[in-house]
Every structure is written in structure tokens, then in C-alpha cells.
Design a protein that fits this description.
The protein has 220 residues and is of the alpha+beta class. Helices cover 46% and strands 22% of the residues. The model has no long low-confidence stretch (mean pLDDT 91).
Length: 220
Amino acid sequence: MQIDFSSILNSEELSLLERTRRTFKIKKNQLLFMEGKEPAGAYFLFKGKIKIFTTDAKGREQIVHLAKPGNILGYRALLGDDCFSCSASALEDSEAWFIPKETFFGLLENNATFSHAVVKILTAELRHAEHHIAGLTRKPVKSRIAAVLIMLADTYGFASDGKTLAVSLTRDELAGLVGTATETTIRLLNSLREEGLLATEGKKVRLLDRAALERCSQNA
């Protein structure tokens, strides 16, 4: 869910946000925040694409969320008075606003519409996490790969040709989204390509038969 500050904050609150926020320009692969660090505020993605991920003891990433402009990041650590449970880094050159803790909580306390929007975002993310975990346990890997490709299309859309995903992920990042080994991801992408469902060129993926991918994603 996306936030439109101009539609839910009054002029005084918008002025406060303008005075206190800081703009961060994040280069591709640069961290916005790191797992285990204590937050000093939340982040609003203004431009670009961000991945939210955890890292296991062997350094392997598990991507838990993909953000697009209009998304608020890092707010759950603030609400829980806790450290960041995940890290965030840029999938491409991006721009984010840092909203200090005092400003964020002030808006929550004084603007019911903003508070309601944050609750809806939190609820949607928890629902997504539940569905993701259920998918990892119930679906075969090939179905999960198809589901991830559909999710990427729904999240970021397509390039001008209407078929190429408008986000470029490495095979390691795709594997981190699917929750499997990189080698397995590569093998199954090749299988989907041989079936005519998609085409690949480097990190670019073109969906040739979305309907067939959706059917594949529903296989249990």
C-alpha cells in the first residue's frame, strides 16, 4: 500500500514534514538501513526500487519484501521500539525521505487518517507474510518461481514492450525471493523458458504467457 502525504496531512503537518525530513539518494546495491541497528526514524521511498531482506549465518539473502515509490519502510521497528529485523538496499538508484522518530510519532498521534493508513499497511504486510510462508511450505519450487514472476509484474509493471519486467534481479536475488538455491532457480527458469512461458536476456525477464504462468503458480 502506498502513502500520499499530500492527501492525508494538513498544511501544518506537511510543513512539519518538509522541515524535518532528510532526503537520501541511494546508489544501486547501497544499504538504506541494516538489520540489527536501532532506528532513529522511518523511511518513505520517493523514487526507485528497494529490497527488504534478511541474511542467514552463511550470508545468503532471503528477500521478504520489495518496495516501490510511496511505500514506508522501517516503521515496524519504530512501532515495536526494537532494532531493524531486516536490511534494505537499492535495486537501482533510488531516493528516500528519512522521517525522524519524533515527527513520525507526532503524525501518528495527531492525525487519525495517517494512523489508520499505517495500520492498514501493517495489516497488509502481515497478510502477505502469512501467504508467503504458506506458499513456501505448500507449493513446489517451480510454482513459487512462477508466483514470484507474477508478483514482480504486479509490483513494478513492465517496460515499454509490455512483456519485460520493469525490474532487473540477479539469479541470487530471485532465489532469495523464492526461498531456494540459486542453482535450482536457474534450472527452473530454463524449464519455463523451454516451455515458452518466458524469455531471458541477462537479468531481464520477459513474460510470454502470463496466463500459463498464473496456472503454474497455483499448482500445489
